[in-house]
Fold:
Amino acid sequence: MPRYTQPRKTWQYSNEFKVKAVELSKLEDIKVNDVAAALDIHPFMLSRWRKEYREGTIVAKKGKKLTDFAKEKKEMDHLQKLERENARLRKENDLLKKWQRYLAEQHQNDLDSSKDSDQN
Structure:
């Protein structure tokens, strides 16, 4: 196994980012996993940040507006709606593919049976 000459890269997140993530995860009808996926972080990390936020170890700088959480919630809802629609369309597509295979098999069976009757 090769030796690493450089130390592992560890991502450092600002307190503002952590607080923003925690506030997003505290919104109604939003899951921790959804927020973590949207921010491209591990759900365990977000859970740890939530604990640190409750304990008061991470706080945003005063006087700095974090974000408009209502707008982000709306975007998150829209994303979830699109994911549901995508799943529904995939199911429809799979069903249509199955139906097309079925029709192709029926057509082939009809051709085979007509060849058999022509040979007799």
